[in-house]
From TrEMBL:
The lineage of its organism: Bacteria, Bacillati, Actinomycetota, Actinomycetes, Micromonosporales. It comes from Micromonospora sonneratiae. Pfam families: Aldedh. Residues 3-454 form the Aldehyde dehydrogenase domain. Belongs to the aldehyde dehydrogenase family. This is NADP-dependent succinic semialdehyde dehydrogenase. InterPro entries: Ald_DH/histidinol_DH, Ald_DH_C, Ald_DH_N, Aldehyde_DH_dom, ALDH_GabD1-like, GABD/Sad-like. Keywords: NADP, Oxidoreductase. Gene3D superfamilies: Aldehyde Dehydrogenase, Chain A, domain 1, Aldehyde Dehydrogenase, Chain A, domain 2.
Length: 470
């Protein structure tokens, strides 16, 4: 895939970039090592000052960076500006909380024969971040903000279709005051990832992306014995039970499926509705999906813009076509419009069966699969009957059902009577083929730290550490 900005609303090339040669990549890695040595000598207060400055710059740049994201990947201008604001909030969150999250944690010294015992969190070094295009600022920032506050440094290999956003991020942290090399963008193709990750100067990696990309990076990290965090695909269930507020559920379901033009790992994709309320919910949901406005992503009146890439639209079309060819019904949408750009309408498909690819594969576009569940047990069977386990939604006003869903849904998060989203205050990640490790919250900042055990004895001859084996 070329490293280029191609406007998905028109299909026209805006700007292309040459990939960095190996020599420049090696020089960037060496700069990251030097920057890590410098950053380790700074205080939390200094890093917080720089990260807060980055937040202020994001606020000042919001219109411009929003316009750039819309141009590069087609998200609506309103959602792009909201993404920049969310990144600024995350910077301020970690600036305010990192020192507390990484404070020494005391242990029971007397139980281990010490005068003092504690856990200390220390940064690992240069971390490679392999990031996707769908939230080109946010998915980088949820790694970068905690990593930099912990004292790590970042090497960003961003998606090839958002190169200008990637370059903006490097400039952002430098403008904010971080040392030269603390956060660098590497304009390289996916084939360079293995070479970078196997470099001994690179200590760990994080990847948000497809299952295939995650397997490749995870395999290399495993061979190199390096820590890795993987946030991969999702096919999130959205379960609706008889006690739910159906109008509200249908309203949120529409947003949950079509947010970011339907291109979100944690977008609800499989809508599993109890048979007692299936017809009523389906009618309201289809009406709302049909009413969404597809058009110019820069327009304030637009709900859904184009898909980010031509191949992405082709993939969505193929999944819908496969389902229809095998007996599924399309309740709305399902046909791309004529003209330039990579458009696809909000679509609802029902009568799905396991032989259809939509049953088991993630649809990365504004296409909803609608399922009928005979009971709570049947709803859980359908919800968990996938190789993914990122997010999940359940709609019920029954307190007992709410507790059961919180336990029974096999996912990294369960949102009850609300839309799955990410917050700096809460850990984010998945299980099964959706990956492992966590981003955000205290758990996220600790992922790329050495959890160092410190045992301090009195120095007197009375036994203690070393008197027993493992």
């Amino acid at each position: 895939m070329p490293i280029a900005t191609i406007n998905p609303a028109t299909g026209q090339l805006v700007e292309s970039f040459d990939a960095l040669p190996d020599g420049q990549v090696d020089a960037a890695i060496e700069r990251s090592v030097e920057a890590f040595e410098a950053l380790c000598g700074t205080t939390f207060a200094e890093r917080a000052q720089w990260l807060t400055a980055a937040a202020d710059l994001l606020d000042a740049d919001r219109d411009d960076i929003g316009r750039l994201m819309t141009t590069e990947m087609g998200k609506t201008y309103a959602s792009a500006k909201a993404e920049a604001a969310k990144c600024a909030a995350a910077c301020r969150f970690y600036a305010a909380n990192a020192e507390r999250f990484l404070a020494d944690e005391p242990a029971d010294a007397s139980a281990v024969g010490a005068t003092r015992a504690y856990v200390r969190y220390q940064p690992l070094g240069p971390v490679l971040a392999v990031m996707p295009w769908n939230f080109p600022l946010w998915q980088v920032m949820r790694f970068a903000a905690p990593a930099l506050m912990a004292g790590n440094v970042g090497l960003l290999k961003h998606a090839s279709n958002v190169p200008q956003t990637a370059l903006y991020l490097e400039k952002l942290f430098r403008r904010a005051g971080f040392p030269v090399g603390a956060f660098q963008t590497l304009l390289v193709g996916s084939r360079s990832v293995e070479r970078i990750l196997t470099d001994p100067r690179v200590r760990a990696a994080t990847l948000t992306g497809s299952e295939g990309a995650g397997r490749a990076v995870g395999r290399t990290a495993g061979q190199e014995l390096k820590k890795v965090v993987l946030e991969l695909g999702g096919s999130d269930p959205f379960v609706v039970m008889p006690s739910a507020d159906l109008e509200r559920a249908a309203e949120v379901a529409t947003t949950a499926r079509c947010q970011n033009n339907g291109q979100s790992c944690i977008a609800a994709k499989r809508f599993i509705v109890h048979t007692d309320v299936y017809d009523e919910f389906a009618e309201a949901f289809v009406a709302r999906m049909s009413a969404l406005r597809v058009g110019d992503p820069m327009s304030a009146d637009t709900d859904v813009g184009p898909l980010a890439t031509e191949q992405g639209r082709a993939d969505v079309e193929e999944l819908v076509r496969d389902a229809v060819d095998k007996g599924a019904r399309v309740l709305c949408g399902g046909q791309r419009p004529d003209g330039d750009g990579w458009w696809y309408p909000p679509t609802v498909v029902t009568d799905l069966i396991p032989e259809m690819r939509m049953w088991s594969e993630e649809v990365f576009g504004p296409v909803a699969g609608l399922f009928r569940a005979a009971s709570y047990t049947d709803a859980i069977r359908l919800a968990n009957g996938t190789s993914f386990g990122l997010g999940s939604n359940a709609w019920t006003r029954d307190p007992a059902e709410q507790e059961r869903f919180a336990t029974d849904l096999d996912a990294g998060s369960v949102f009850i009577n609300g839309m799955t989203t990410s917050f700096p205050e809460l850990p984010f990640g998945g299980v099964k083929n959706s990956g492992h490790g966590r981003e955000l919250s205290a758990q996220g900042i600790r992922e790329f730290c050495n959890l160092k055990t410190v045992w301090v004895g009195s120095g007197e001859s009375r036994g203690g550490a070393g008197s027993h084996s493992e």
